[in-house]
Fold this sequence. Notes:
mainly alpha
Amino acid sequence: MKIIIIRTIFMLLLLTTFATIFKFSSQIAEESDDISNGVLRKIIDVFPYTKGLSEEIKIKMVEHGNPIIRKLAHFSIYALVGVWIMAFMSTFDIRLYKKWIISMLVGVLYAASDEFHQSFVPGRGPSIVDVGIDSLGVLTGILAVLIIISIYRALKSDKKIEEKC
């Protein structure tokens, strides 16, 4: 019963992340750019060393930083996808390499389908570079889960050793 609840939670988190990606991908180019620019502007305004900069320089920083913030957003949200998929897969009793392959396949296929979806949105289009960035994000999320699981198992095994002493 407990494992079903855990699986359900991870699946709901994954589906929520997929829905968020779909929502962002459905935005027309101008709306998407406005959001990225707004986020970047807030980041720029937070740092004390940018307080004395002119408005013109801040606008240039936003213009030049926009592609970077967009790629970081792609990477980050797909890292989250990787975390949720691998966490879900980790609840099954199958070999690790199969969990990894399934997690990667699901993440990369969703990234590719997301880029295909963008081809129907005005001002947007598919990008193989974005699929690559998304895939690296998925891989990073998967590796993060594997590292956390390894640390957990090592600590658990150390505790068992201490109990025997």
